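fwd from M.: "can u put these together and see what the complex looks like"

so here's what she sent:
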Amino acid sequence: MVKYSKIEFLVACASRHVRNDEAVFGGTGMPLLAALLAKETHAPRINLISEAGFIDARPREVPLSVADSRYYYGCSASIGLIETLGFILQGGRIDVGFLGSAQIDEYGNINTTYIGPFDNPKVKLPGSGGGNDIASSAKRLIVMMTHDKRKFVKELDYMTSPGHLQGPGSRKKWSLVGNGPDVVITDMCQMDFDPDTLKIRLMTVHPGFEIQDILDNVMFEIVVPDDVPTTEEPTQEQIDIMHKLDPHGIYLGKGG
Amino acid sequence: MVPDGSELFWGGFGYQRAPIAFAHELVRQNKRRLNIQTCGSEVDLEIMCGAGVADKFEIAFTAIEALGLSNNARRRVTEGKLQIEDYSNLAMAMRFLGGALNVPFMPIRSLMGTDMVKHARFKGDKKLKVIDCPFTNEKICLVPSVQPDFSIVHVQRVDQQGNAQIDGIVGEDVEGSRCGKKLIVLAEELIDGDEIRKRPDQTKIPALYVDRIVILPFIAHPMQCHDYYDYDLEHLQMFHKLTRAEEMWQEYLDNYILGVDDHWGYLEKIGWENLHKLRARKPWGY
């Protein structure tokens, strides 16, 4: 049996959602590892783009920043932000974007800005960065986060980036370029969206967890279909490649 | 030359070409009430809000990316000493482009439907507007252009005329360098005009935009400068750790910024041997 950590499971799981030949916004952290893993395995022709300006990047070590020079060596073009977020992303040319989230609601709307009330915030989080742009304009959005009941809220403290907003028709109302979140992946389960209501729906549960565990760990009502399979486990090959990409365990952790 | 209360476009992006030496000097000169406008800056924003130099940010992002949250900004926001007007990266880049083009606003397809539209701080109803496009009737978001008092941009090389060359990515520095009323270029190296003319495609900022030039090595330390030096991960981790508590941050501030006379003093403190270890290697550029 393959041994894996929660983070390794998350990364392997997310990488399967990237298809060959897609244009992917990489970012940093777990999403970047997932995209690089996809490129090393089933999707060698993805075009990995960093919002700082790197296009078709093939970093030999994991970058710590979207602007890290590690993104430069081997990339096909090194330009700037209007190019990537403007011409490429807003131009409708990005297939997949990845985002993390501190809070998410039942329509997949995302908060990465404040915990607590706007007028008297308890915690200032990083903010949008390119997140709102990516959530607005990428054709598909993959959300990756660690599972914590307090993160799956009925009402966000602040909506930084659009998921499906208030449900069917609302992205269209604001003429958003992209189609919104496709899947939410945590260390307990994978969720997609009910096509009729655009509300979060349980998709697969990771080995070791039951459906009830998920229901107990979200603060809204989650749609549960009749058939909820167990999530596919990572392969040893996937785990080995991940560690080759992140030899110092910056994202995977030292123990992994 | 930067008066209290000025608005500054702040160059660099993420870990790349951050004008850290300029932030240090603003602190040493005890500047106050600055409004910093940028997409995503990290250690420099932490220094400026931590030392009380800036009390307003118009930004999209602040954190140390892979290392974690911006502790100083987080504390200053909670204390009410820092107001952050939140935009997205594209929104800020377009605000600089609008300022550079000398038009009052730019349209974007981001922000709509979210709290970025609903909530504003010091910009009030001047933060942005969502309108029906007069041509297509679609909803479109207008963000106000900015023409700050100064643009501060860090580049690799410059000649005596001010022609400035940037290696690697430009981030939002092409627009940012042209939007300010005065442009201060900080460069790692002064090179001959003939050298510039051998590689004119690398000149991202022609001399006609430039008002002042400062030449210093390791301007971005502990961040990186493509083709010149890598980030100083050890120092960066120490910096991030020390910002976790106010007393520890004050210690860093006294030790590395206020406790030295100038940038040369700071570099002495870091140690030339350490700095030379960060020198970029070919062909990787870091």
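replying to her w this: The CA atoms of residues 16 and 38 of chain A lie 7 Å apart.
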